[in-house]
Amino acid sequence: MKNTMTPPPCSPSLCDGRAARWWPTMACTRLRDCCLARHWSIVDADQYDETERLAILDSYDILDTPAEQAFDDVVKLASQLLDAPIAAVNLIAKDRQWFKSEVGLGTREMPLDDSICKFALLEAEQMIVPDTREDARFARNPLVTGEPGLRFYAGQLLKTKAGIPLGTLCVLDLEPRPHGLTPQQQFVLATLAQQIMSQIELRKVVKDQAVLIARQAQIQRELRESQLRSLEVSHQAEAERRRTDALLEAAPVGIVIADANGVIVKMNAENRRMLGVDPEATDLGPGQPWRGWWADGSARHGQPLAAHEWSLARALLGEESPRQVIEIAPFDAATPRRTVLNSGRPVRDETGAIIGAVIAQMDITDRVDAESALRTADQKKDEFLAMLAHELRNPLAPIMSASAILSNFHFDEGVVRRTGAIIARQAGHMTSLINDLLDVSRVTRGKVELDTAELNIKDVIADAIEQVRPLVTRHQHHLDVLLAPVQVMVKGDRKRLVQVFANLLGNAAKYTPDGGRIELLLEARARTVMVSIRDNGVGMSSELIDSAFDLFSQGVQGLDRSQGGLGIGLALARSLVHLHGGVVNAKSDGAGMGCQLEVTLPRVGAAAYGG
């Protein structure tokens, strides 16, 4: 091995990479400041760049670590065997050189700009500089030109098994050595460098083993924690399953769970009750005698269900929410048929494939029976009202005749007149009630036929006011009528519309204290007509408003019981308004706050009349 590897004088070739042609395997990729580089990189021409080299050095985790006897012993031995006052294990880091062990330096770190060893990384194995002052690379190095005045340098590379240089084992002298190192000394330096590198590798192996052991311990801990979590999740899942089973059993709705083949895998208690299935029975599959009939009131009502029409079959075919009202025959022949509302949904796996279905069904037999009973009762009620009206109307003609005859006799004229007035008033009242009963009966049975024509709504209102004028006068009410200034036409039955507004005005008069105020307002809109009747009477609670238009509904009766009716006036008015294509609403701010009734009817001929 040569005692010196002096590079050529500074030239552009050192900066453009052509120097790699005469340096064996390492090349300087960049020399800044033209020569004697201050910032530089070491590059393996085939595999590595400086960033990778520094990363590999960091992986050994040796920088900035405390002194270690194994390294100190080798450094001392190198100093003694090579008769060098200065020796060090030098690692070339980023922007600095750091000494793992040193003799004669008195420091653990130096700037990279002052480094001699950094040039050794450009050599194949060893770099020997007999006299630094005669080497152009160190002409301006302060460690050479100033204190301590380094004159001799010899460094052996510390390389990984992959050939990556981390630093050097170097010896330095304050006197030049013109002959460099003898072959034997070169061998000693190389051997000791191998010892240093072995210590570095051993140190890394120990560290890696410690990391591996720690990682294995961590994995073991994580495995134990995972097992504990899995066990906890298993317990939670079991508890959840028990809760779900309890919920299914307690639910008042029948639940059926089937697999992809339609085999029942779960059926709760309510569904077993509906089907008359023994609680311990397990054979609930397709082989059972499932019998059902449509009960939805459609054209197919009463027809038996085909196999593919059941909610379970439809859900298994992919229908998302099949719903049906059917009548089923329980498996137990002694159990009567039940009417059920059921719905199904397919169960899918993570790929969307159907793996089963869930069916929920509610026993609505009692509700269907109750609705049927209500319909029957409603029909009987209408029949009763019709019969009652006819039975009560028969005595009225004699009463009316008797009152007329009595008024013509020459008895005490005052008595006869008062008696006749009472009979006439009560007979008229009874006639009004019975006519209302007859009207309600006709409307509810769809027997009312309207004699429609185009009407001026103002004339209708005038007739209604005329009918209720005696009642308003008797209670000393202030009646204000505000009519739209334009002609307002509607299409309807004059007699029935007069009846509607007379009922509404009469209702306001009955439930407004004496001396109260009643206001009727007619508004003409583009397509509709609205008539509102407002009073400052007893008003209505929110609960009463909700049922104000129900048949036989009445409010406060304390104002004048003699004016109380059967509670059919508003119900009749609403029915008649609906027959005319309109709506009627009630508003009130509460008891004692008055009430407002609004009737909205379709308007006709608005363009012709300028509305």
Automatic annotation (TrEMBL):
Top-level taxon in the UniProt lineage: Bacteria
The PAS domain covers 240-280
EC code(s) of this entry: 2.7.13.3
What reaction does this enzyme carry out catalytically?
ATP + protein L-histidine = ADP + protein N-phospho-L-histidine
Q: Which residues form the Histidine kinase domain?
A: 387-605
Residue ranges of the PAC domain? Answer: 319-376
Protein name stated in the entry: histidine kinase
In which organism is this protein found?
A: Pseudoduganella albidiflava
